[in-house]
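Appendix C: a fully annotated inverse folding record. The material below is reproduced so that readers can follow the format used throughout the book. The structure is listed first as tokens, followed by the designed sequence.
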């Protein structure tokens, strides 16, 4: 039984207990929606990542069950508007904008409806959810419930400790341009307004055009991806070391990453210092010449930002030009084919070489690039 099947079975048991009035077809549709389109991804997740994935599904399910499942479509839509309208910061921003606009009769819910509609029409993630939900169920009532639950979960995702819907409202302001200088009504005076406002319940000003927040969020996302890549490399390298060199090599790696000296590592492992130095040499050889180049090149290169396709082996444009000029025609062909996404086997077939020869040339190229990078 695959992990996806095991998760589906857990959800079946839970839905039978939580939603006995729903039909089996409805419960299966909900399970399919919760698991997502790419169920094979569960097989590659670590134990911690799998726990996070389960928590995310549970969070979505609780949103669905609490506000949208088993109620009329009108009531479900009101529940979404009420939930998002209850966000204090968002409500204050909308009220401030309405007060400064020409149409002061508009309610918070009216503006919120426009923002949500714009999201559904233009946001790529929500459009993907619409398509996926359509594959999960043909029942219009369930389709509506799943879409509203997905919309709420997406709108409440935190960005710099603020819900995503807050920043989508800022984007809405930019695109709408109402009350702005670009739409000056004939005969009306132009009023200049500061981009910062002070909500009623705080003394801290709030920017209506908080572009820095989005940039900081994107930077944080990059850092999270790098940390995830680092953890993935570390875990796979530990497994590789244990298979090739034994548990002492894994313990050495843990202590080394903690900043311990070779002498301190020797004491912790209860081994002579010379043995520890020899162990270090073995680990270095496997790390650079086997694991990083032959077994997991994409994983390590992505972590170190030394991939050929995205980072030119981590070389600057000047260094890359210098490196390129030293290559033979065959080496240049190999690099071009690797950039094109060809496997070592495919490259060997195209260049009429053995796969081991291609891998050997690739090792030389990678190490030469890293030597040039280190020397600069």
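Designed amino acids, in order:
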């Amino acid at each position: 039984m695959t992990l996806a099947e095991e998760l589906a079975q857990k959800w079946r048991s839970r839905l039978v207990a939580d939603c006995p009035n729903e039909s089996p077809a409805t419960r299966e549709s909900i399970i399919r929606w919760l698991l997502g389109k790419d169920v094979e991804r569960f097989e590659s997740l670590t134990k911690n990542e799998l726990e996070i994935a389960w928590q995310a599904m549970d969070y979505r399910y609780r949103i669905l069950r609490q506000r949208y499942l088993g109620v009329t479509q009108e009531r479900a839509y009101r529940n979404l508007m009420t939930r998002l309208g209850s966000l204090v910061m968002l409500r204050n921003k909308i009220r401030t904008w309405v007060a400064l606009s020409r149409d002061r009769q508009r309610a918070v819910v009216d503006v919120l409806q426009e923002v949500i509609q714009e999201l559904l029409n233009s946001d790529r993630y929500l459009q993907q959810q619409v398509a996926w939900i359509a594959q999960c169920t043909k029942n219009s009532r369930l389709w509506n419930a799943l879409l509203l639950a997905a919309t709420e979960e997406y709108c409440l995702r935190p960005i710099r400790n603020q819900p995503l819907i807050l920043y989508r409202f800022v984007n809405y302001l930019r695109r709408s341009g109402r009350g702005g200088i670009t739409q000056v009504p004939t005969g009306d005076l132009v009023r200049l307004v500061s981009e910062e406002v002070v909500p009623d319940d705080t003394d801290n000003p709030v920017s209506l055009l908080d572009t820095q927040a989005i940039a900081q969020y994107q930077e944080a996302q990059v850092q999270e991806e790098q940390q995830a890549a680092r953890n993935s490399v570390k875990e796979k390298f530990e497994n590789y070391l244990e298979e090739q060199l034994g548990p002492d090599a894994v313990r050495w790696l843990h202590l080394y990453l903690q900043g311990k000296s070779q002498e301190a590592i020797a004491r912790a492992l209860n081994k002579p210092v010379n043995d520890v130095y020899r162990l270090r040499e073995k680990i270095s050889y496997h790390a650079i010449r086997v694991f990083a180049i032959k077994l997991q090149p994409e994983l390590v290169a992505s972590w170190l930002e030394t991939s050929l396709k995205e980072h030119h082996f981590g070389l600057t444009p000047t260094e890359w030009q210098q490196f390129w000029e030293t290559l033979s025609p065959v080496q240049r062909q190999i690099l071009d084919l690797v950039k094109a996404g060809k496997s070592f086997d495919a490259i060997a077939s195209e260049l009429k070489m053995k796969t081991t020869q291609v891998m050997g040339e690739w090792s030389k190229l990678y190490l030469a690039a890293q030597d040039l990078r280190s020397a600069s």
